[in-house]
Amino acid sequence: MTPPVILSIAGSDCSSGAGIQADLKVAHALGVFSLTAVTCVVSEVPGDVSAIQAIEPELVADQVRICLDTFPVAAVKTGMLYSPEIVGACAPLLRRSGLPLVVDPVMIATAGDPLMLESAITAYESDILPITTLLTPNTDELARLLGCGTITTAARLKEATHALCGKYGCAVLGKGGHLSNRCHDILALPGGQTFEWTRDKISGVSTHGTGCSLSSAIASLLAHGLPLPEAVSSALDFVAQSIAAHHRWQHQGLGIDVLN
Ligand code: PLP
Predict the structure, then answer these.
(1) Which of 4, 82, 181, 190 could form a disulfide with 223 if both were Cys (CB 3.0 to 4.6 A apart)?
(2) How far is the CA of 7 from the centre of ligand 1 (A)?
């Protein structure tokens, strides 16, 4: 049986915990074939971004174009789009495709390093968010996109998720994994429906790449034909299992974790 196909437009993480490497692993585990359009090469390991080299926007767009022209792509996921030029090069192709689009607005790495140029935010707002099916911001990205203060409670997360859904007219999954010892995730749909999930946090494990894994899991499950709330729910379960089953290596006196 041939698997459904998704396209991941994202950065390369040489340590294979995040970015396109995570997307490929997740899609494969969920029985989906993922094509990849590489936007940036990031020299990094969990907790340390050493260097970023963006790919020429024309080459990014050409990867997207040739993949969409050749394969029966069922859903698209975007991760680290990095610059306004890359956003601008991809957006017309995505708009024309009319495909379900899951957008992880990757802005800052857990380690604190910027993974998006400040100038790309306006390009996201004008070109990508109007064609987005589901936006998956964490609390920092939510606050940045809304222009509000830090989000520190589940009640505030809920309000902000609804506000962003209203602002852009797309479904928004507000990810509250960093809020407390419980993980809160809230899905707001443009029709006004809300879905909420809470679970215990698995502490003491590096969460590098969880956002990438979650958005590619959602795109994969949409490609299997699941409705959005079911796709989000199963993807959250999938990522929680990946964190619980993480790999840990001891090397040079340090522990290094990567999601399974
Ligand atoms: N590196 C790349 C290439 C990514 O696409 C992402 C996505 O969020 C990250 C790093 C984020 O890493 P972290 O989960 O450590 O914030």
Answers:
(1) 4
(2) 18
Assess whether 225 carries a catalytic annotation. Answer: no
What is the spatial distance between Cα 167 and Cα 161, in angstroms, rounded to a whole number?
A: 10
10 C-alpha to center of ligand 1: Å? Answer: 10
Beta-sheet pairing, 247-251 with 254-258: antiparallel
ipTM for the complex shown: 0.92
Q: Which atom of ligand 1 has the smallest separation from the CA of 11?
A: 3
Residue 39 designated active-site: no
pTM comes to 0.96
Report the separation in Å between the CA atom of 150 and the middle of ligand 1, taken as the mean of its atom positions: 21
Whether the CB-CB separation of 165 and 172 falls below 8 Å is answered with: yes
Amino acid symbol at 63: Q
- Total domains present in the chain: 1
Average pLDDT, rounded, for the chain? 94
Model pLDDT for residues 199-232, shown as the tens digit of each residue: 988 888 888 899 999 999 999 999 999 999 999 9
pLDDT on residue 108: 87
For residue range 92-123, what is the model confidence (pLDDT) as tens digits? 999 999 999 999 999 988 778 899 999 999 99
The ligand 1 atom nearest the CA atom of 10: 5
Considering the candidates 175, 176, 177, 183, report the single residue annotated as catalytic: 175
What CATH number is associated with residue 70? 3.40.1190.20
CA dihedral of 113, 117, 121, 122, whole degrees rounded to 10: 160
